[in-house]
Amino acid sequence: MENEILMDDKNVLVMKLLHYFIIDKNYNPIILQGVENEIWLENLEEDYKVVRIVSSYIHNDEQFNFDMFKTKRIVKKIKKKTLSFNINTLSIFLDLGDNVSQDIHAIPNVECVKINTESDFKKSEVIKKEFPDLTKKLKYSEEGIDLFAKITSDINEHNKKDAKKINAVFKNKFPMITYWLIAVNVILYVIPILFGQYNDLINNYSVWGPAIREGQYYRLLTGIFLHGGILHLLFNCYALYVIGAQVENFLGRIKFIIIYLVSGITGALFSVIFGGNFASIGASGAIFGLLGALVYFGYHYRVYLGTVIKSQIIPLIVLNLLLGFCVSGIDNFAHVGGLIGGTLMSIALGVKDKSSWFERINGWIITIIFLVFTIYMAFFYTI
After folding, report:
1. In 10 A of CB 317, how many CB atoms?
2. What is the mean pLDDT of the segment spanning 337-352?
3. Which residues lie below 8 Å from residue 330, measured CB to CB, with a gap of 6+?
4. What does each C-alpha distance from 281 to 197, 227, 271, 295, 381 come to in angstroms?
5. Which residue in 87, 104, 105 sits closest to 46, CA to CA?
6. What's the number of CA atoms in the CB half-sphere (13 Å) around residue 215?
């Protein structure tokens, strides 16, 4: 009896579609509670981010309208989870009755395709445009149990490879660069104090617009390693320990240090532009850049981190920016500059196995334009 169910034409087509979308198009199954006789697949990099394979029999308009209502409700939840403004959904109906008189193409952001046999895919304009190789990929030399075994084996192997990639990304690694940066910050605070040279260090190496415009460009970098007091140092070192370790773990050491330094420098440039004649010190601009990098990384891995990014990281950024504008003595311009610089640099460097070349090239273009404009404003224009 089990074999009869598995070898049913509709079930065979479902298996073939699963093989195509998972193996060839890198879609991942979505686990939904209480949903029967339909499979939801997700790939946020595709034009159709969600594909539904519906094998249940839909007899009339009332059932179809309820299906659309349920689909919209589930898609709305997926949008919230993945921080997506719009999710185009493709519903493939394998058993849509002739009594359904509704126009199945008239639903915004939900494209419906009625399929009775494999040959029907050739008639669908959506399939021909978005998945032109689907019909060819549905052809197999295997039949029956052999076909089921092949598809199951391929999907299991694909899932294992995906699991290894995800584990490699999220596996805890030793954050060596983060610890080095913390050590540098601590050394540049403790040693000068012990030798009574800290005030001279601040005067000669802080971010100070007039001196930088006169040619002391090194201040744009040195100022981000200096701190105004023990609490300032401890707060920034703790933030760097928590946030930096995560960014270094997710993006790798080289990208991490590039983002950190670029964020610190763009934060310093914003201090020069908007800070007037006041000196600025501290790693917070660079740390805000790391927060921007974390948001960008979380966007690409929003299936796994969407809730964390939305409920923790973004509120943390907003709260600290508001606090910076409300409390005197905080160089919030450095925070804003670092946040923008870190986010743009993250786009330019990209996320491994996620960012496209087109996205990275655009990231480099925007980052260079931003840096050139910021440098021009810092050195040739006074607010």
Report:
1. 17
2. 95
3. 323, 324
4. 16, 6, 10, 25, 22
5. 87
6. 0
Kindly name the residue from 91, 263, 335, 346 that is annotated as catalytic: 335
- The answer to whether 335 is a known catalytic residue is yes
- Render pLDDT for 261-296 as a digit per residue (tens, 0 to 9): 999 999 999 999 998 788 899 999 999 999 999 999
Contact 58, 82 (CB under 8 A): no
**Measured between alpha carbons, how far is 206 from 381 in angstroms, rounded to an integer?**
21
What predicted TM-score, i.e. pTM, was given to this entire model?
0.81
- What's the farthest any 2 CA atoms get from each other in the chain? 88
pLDDT at 101: 75
Pick the catalytic residue from 284, 300, 346, 355: 284
The percentage of the chain sitting over the pLDDT mark of 90, rounded to a whole number, equals 49
CATH of the domain spanning 172-380: 1.20.1540.10
- How many Å apart are CA 283 and CA 351, to the nearest integer? 24
Q: Domain limits of the chain?
A: 2-169, 172-380
Burial category of 79 from C-beta neighbours within 10 Å (exposed 0-12, middle 13-18, buried 19 and up):
middle
19 catalytically annotated: no
